[in-house]
Amino acid sequence: MPDNATIWTTKAPVLEFDTIEFSHSSIDTIRIVANQYDQKVLLGNEYQPCYVEVQYPKIDGESQPEASFSMARPIVGDLVQRTIRSIPPFMRIKEPVKVVMSHWSDSDLTTPMFSYELNLSNEGVSMSVDSVTFKVEKINNMTRGVAKIYRIDEWSGLEGA
Description:
Elements: H1 4-9, E1 16-24, E2 27-34, E3 40-42, E4 45-50, E5 52-55, E6 66-72, H2 73-85, H3 89-94, E7 98-105, E8 114-127, E9 131-137
Parallel strand pairs: 2-4
Antiparallel strand pairs: 1-2, 1-7, 3-4, 5-6, 6-9, 7-8, 8-9
């Protein structure tokens, strides 16, 4: 029988992996599975494989949850970066890009082991020669200064402007 040190240091034989989803009303949802060689289908959605270094948020109850992840730039990283940048700036202020980070086990592909729903931060996307880095955080909607959109039918004085 193995001793406790062996039990606690032995990795489980079940495959575990991370997924990342980017969604916004202006784009099609982008789904990525981290550090896999082949596409994965989870809950009827197809995830593209990519090398990703994931840093999950530290939740201590006092600060806003923040996370970051870097993905390989060739093919997938460039595609995600271009797609995010294609969202008009006003639309990103009005409705932030939602990022769902999930951790899955191969033994149960119906529900993730844990999941975080965050928003792409103002620093958002940075790029180097070989990687694209994303910063995500939980945005407090009460502190966001999003002004009301004025429509001409409500404010007739704007017609001549």
